[in-house]
Amino acid sequence: MRRLAAALLLIALLVAGAQTAHAQARLVVSAQGPYTAIQAALADARDGDTIEVRGGTYAGPVVVERRVELLGIDWPVIDGGGRDTVVKLAADGAMLRGFVVRGSGVEPDRDDSGITVTADGVTIEGNRLDDVLFGVFLSKAADAVVRGNEISSKAQYDTGRKGDAVRVWYSPRGLIERNHIHDARDVVLWYASDIIVRDNLIERGRYGVHLMYSNNAHVERNRVIGNSIGIFAMYSKDLVLQANLLRGQRGPSGYALGFKDADGLAVLDNVLVDNRAGFFLDGTPFTPQSPSRFRGNIVAFNDIGAILLPAVKGNLFEGNTFWENIEQVGVQGGGRLAANLWDGNYWSDYGGLDVNGDGLGEAPYHSDRLFDGLMDREPMLRALLYSPTVQALEMAATTFPIVRPEPKLVDARPRALPAAIPPDAIATATNPAATAAAGALLMSLGILTGVLALPRWRAASGATTMQAYAASSDANAAAAIQVAARAVGKRYGAVRVLEGVSFDVRTGEALALWGANGAGKTTLIKAILGLIDFDGAITVAGRDVKRAGKQARRALGYVPQEAAFNDWSVQQTLEFYARLKRVATARRIGALLDRMGLREHAAKPVSALSGGLKQRLALAVALLADPPLLLLDEPTSNLDKQARADYLALLAELRAEGKTIVFTSHRFEEVEGLADRVLVLDQGVLAEIVTPEELRARWMPEVEVTLWVGEAQRAEALAALQAAGLAAHLNGRGTIVCSVPAGEKMRPFETLAACGVHVANFEVERGRAWS
Fold first, then answer.
1. 306 membership: H or E segment, kind and range
2. CA distances from 555 to 348, 522, 622 (A)
3. If we measure between CA atoms, which residue out of 112, 122, 102 comes closest to residue 58?
4. Does the pLDDT of residue 467 top 60, yes or no?
5. 537: which residues sit within 8 A by CB, 6+ positions away?
6. Dist CA 257 CA 211 (whole Å)
7. Residues contacting residue 13 through CB under 8 Å, at least 6 positions apart
8. How far apart are CA 304 and CA 295, in angstroms?
C-alpha cells in the first residue's frame, strides 16, 4: 500500500508539472515564424497559453475562443480590411494587450467593431483602436477590464455616423479606466450595473458617458472635454459621480452633467467649466423617496450653472461653488425651485458679508436677477445678453424694488469663500461670461460704480477671496500675482503713450507708478481697468481685462484723482452704490462711515464736503465690496498737508491688512511711506522697477537744504559750508541753500554746529522730483 501511495503521488506530481509547463507555454507569431498568422497560433493554443505577436501587420478577423493572452510586441497591427469586426474575444479570461486594431467594417446594424467581447472576465489593455466603426463592444460580458487603450472611430464620418468608442450591453461589474477616447460617438452603458468608469480622457465626441438602466455605477476622476454632452444618466439609480472634470460641452444641449428620471445620485466634487449648462435635471428624483445629493462641485463659467425643470424637487445642493456663470440657476419654463434645499453654496454674485468669521454670509442669497427669469421663460432673449437694455433692466430691478422679481431659490447660509478652482478652469474658460465687455452701463455711471452683482471678497480671517484663489489655482499662481501686464502699449494716432510695458503686482504689495506728466501713468491705470483698448495683455486676479473685464473689475476698487458725485447726502451716496454692487447691508456702510471718519458727515450733501472728505467718500465707495485690489490715481493731489497725511494713514492701514495697492503719485514722501516697489515710466516706456530707496538714489540723488541762519552769522556759515566741499549759496530771502547727496542731509548741520553757527529753521526739498 505504501508503494502504491507513493506511485500515485508521483503520478500526480508529474501531471501537475505537465500542467504547469503547459500554462507557461509561449507561441510566437512573426514574419519569420514559427507562426506567421495569429489565427494559426490560436488554433494550436490551449487555455493559459501566451501568444506573442511581433511587430508587423496581420490580417483580421481574429477570433479568440481559448483563455489565452495575446501580447503585442512593437505594436503589431491587426487590420480587418474594412470588413466585419476585427477582433472577437469569446473565451472567459482572455486578454488582448499591445496591439493596433484597425480597419473594421462600416455597418452599424452589424455592430462592426474593433473588438467585440462575448465572454466574462476579459481584459483589453494598452491597445490602439482607430479606423474602426465601434471601438470596444462588450455584449453580455461580465467583469471585463478595458484599461489604458486609445480609441477613436472612422475619421471620414461626422459624429452622428461614427460608432460608440465603448459600448457596454448587459455586462455588469466592468472596469473602464485610463483610456483616451476621442473622435468617436459615445461611451454608452446600457443595462450595466455595478460598473466603474474612472481616470479616462474622453473628448470630441457626442455623449462623453451615457448611462441607461445602469444602477450602482461609479464614474470617477474622468476628464470629459469638448463633447456635445458630458455625462448623461437616464433611468438609473444609486450612481456616484465624483471628481470628474467636464469642460467645453458645447453641443445643442451642452450639458456637463445631465439626469433624467434618476434616483439616489451622489454627485460630488466635480468641476463643470465652460459648458452650455453645468447641471441638467429632469424628473430627478424619479422616486420621491430617493433624492440626490450635489455636494462640493465647482460650477464655473458656464452659460447656465444649473437647469432644473420646475417639477424637480427634494434634492440637496450643498457646499457647491457657483462661479461666474452667465445665469447661475435656470428654471426651464420659468418658476421657482423652492422644493429643493440649497444650503452653504458659494455664489459669485452674492453681495453679503461674513461678519462673525464662520465662513458663511450673514444674509441669505437670493437668485432674483430680473433678466434671468425672462430668459428662463423665453430662451431667445439670450441674444440680448450684455446689451444696454439688459443692463438698464438689471439696474432698475436692483435700485427700484417695484420691479424686483421673486427669487427662484434661496440659500439661507451662503459660503463666503469659493472652493479652489483648478488650473484647467482658468486656462480654458471661453464662454461669453468670460469674454464679454463690462457693458455700456459701467461707462455711463463711471468706474466708481464698479459692476452689478459685485461679490464680497474678504473673509473675516483677513485673507481675501482672490488671495486664496490665486494661491490655490494656477492663475498667475506661484507668487500669487494680483496684476500681470505683458507688453502693454497704447497709441493715440501717431502719438505713443505706452509701449512694451510689462510688470507683475504681487498680492498684498503696494506698487507706485512714477513719472513726469505725460509719462503714461493714468493711461496704464485705465488699461488695467479695461476702459481703453490697448496692445498686449493685462490680467487682474487671473482674469484677462479684455476678454473678462467684468470679472476682472470685481477684484478691484478705483479711486480717481477727483471723484464726481451726485448731490446726495453721504449716506445716500453709499447706499446707492451699495445697491449697485449688491452690498445691501447697513452694517457694511456703517463700518465704512466710521473708518473713513464720515459718520458725523453722513447727513451732509456731498457738495458741502471738503476735498479731503470727498476723497474719503470715494475710498469708501471703492471699499464697499471689499475688493482685494485698490487702484488710486493721484488720490492726494488736491488735498492739504493734514488731509493728505490722514489719507495716507488710511491707505497704510489697508495695506497692512493685505490689500494690494497700485497708485500714482508725484510726491516722493508718499511713495517712500507706502510703496514696496516703484514702476518708473519715462515717455511711455518702462525705465525700471526699483525700491523707494533705489528711486531716491537713482532719480533724485540730491536734496536741497534751505537753512535759516541769523544775519550776523550768514557769511561765516556760507564760508564754512563751501570750505567743507558743499555747494551752498545765498538766496534772495537771506537764507542759505545747500545741495547735498540724498543720504547726507545731516552734513550741513554737522558742519555748522562744529563752527558754533546756530540754525533757526530749515526745509528739505528733493532735487529731481518729477511734477
1. strand 304-308
2. 11, 19, 11
3. 102
4. no
5. 484, 485, 486, 487, 488, 544, 546
6. 11
7. none
8. 18
Burial of 160 (0-12, 13-18, 19+ CB in 10 A): exposed
* Nine-digit cell string for 152: 477613436
Strand pairing report for 123-125 and 95-97: parallel
Question: Which of 262-276, 354-368, 573-587 ranks highest by mean pLDDT?
Answer: 262-276
Establish whether the linkage from the previous residue to 61 is cis, with ω within 30° of 0: yes
Report cis status (omega within 30 of 0) of the bond before 172.
no
Residue 557, phi then psi, degrees to nearest 5: -120, 140
Q: 661: closest CA among 527, 546, 513?
A: 513
Query: What backbone phi and psi angles, to 5 degrees, belong to 736?
Result: -100, 130
**Mean per-residue pLDDT, 97-120:** 96
**Can you name the residues that pair with 473 across neighbouring β-strands?**
none
Which three cell numbers, joined as nine digits, stand for 747? Answer: 552734513
> For residue 650, what is its C-alpha cell?
488710511
Distance CA 558, CA 447 (A): 7
> Is 389 or 522 the better-scoring residue by pLDDT?
522
Quick one: which of 566, 612, 618, 568 has its CA closest to 592? 618
pLDDT tens across 412-460, in order?
Answer: 999 988 887 776 555 444 443 333 322 322 333 333 333 333 222 222 2
Q: Do the bridges between strand 736-741 and strand 495-506 make them parallel or antiparallel, or are there none, so unpaired?
A: unpaired
Q: Is 11 exposed, middle or buried (0-12, 13-18, 19+ CB in 10 A)?
A: exposed
Report the Cα 757 to chain-centroid distance in Å.
67
Yes or no: say if 257 and 241 are a contact pair by the CB < 8 Å rule: yes
Taken as a whole, the chain contains a residue count of 771
CB atoms within 10 A of CB 443: 12
Residue 180 pairs in a beta bridge with 150, 201
Contact criterion met (CB below 8 Å) for 358 and 334: no
Of the pLDDT bands very low, low, confident and very high (cuts 50, 70, 90), residue 471 is: very low
pLDDT (tens digit, 9 = 90+) per residue, 656-673?
Answer: 888 999 999 877 778 888
Q: What are phi and psi of 287, to 5 degrees?
A: -105, 120
Radius of gyration of the chain (CA): 36
User: Can you give 639-705 as a three-state secondary structure string?
Assistant: CCHHHHHHHHHHHHHHHHCCCEEEEECCCHHHHHHHCCEEEEEECCEEEEEECHHHHHHHHCCEEEE
Distance CA 643, CA 655 (A): 19
* Residues 340, 317 contacting (CB under 8 angstroms): yes
3-class DSSP assignment, residue 10: helix
All cell numbers assigned to 380: 431667445
Q: Which of 553, 576, 555, 558 is nearest to 395 (CA)?
A: 576
Task: Calculate the CA dihedral of residues 424, 428, 430, 433 and round it to 10 degrees.
Answer: 40
DSSP assigned state of 14: H
**Residues β-bridged to residue 730:** 736
Query: What type of residue is 206?
Result: R
Strands (E), 710-758: 727-730, 736-741
- Examine residue 285 and say whether the peptide bond preceding it is cis (omega within 30 degrees of 0): yes
Mean pLDDT of 557-576: 85
In degrees rounded to 5, what are phi and psi of residue 464?
-80, 155
Rounded Cα distance between 466 and 629, Å, is 9
What pairing do the DSSP bridges indicate for beta strands 410-411 and 365-366?
Answer: antiparallel
Of the candidates 655, 657, 697, the one whose C-alpha atom is nearest the C-alpha of residue 676 is 655
Cα separation, 88 vs 134, whole angstroms: 13
Take residue 635 and report the three cell numbers written for it: 488720490
Distance of CA 298 to the CA centre of its chain: 10
Give the C-alpha separation, 385 to 180, whole Å. 37
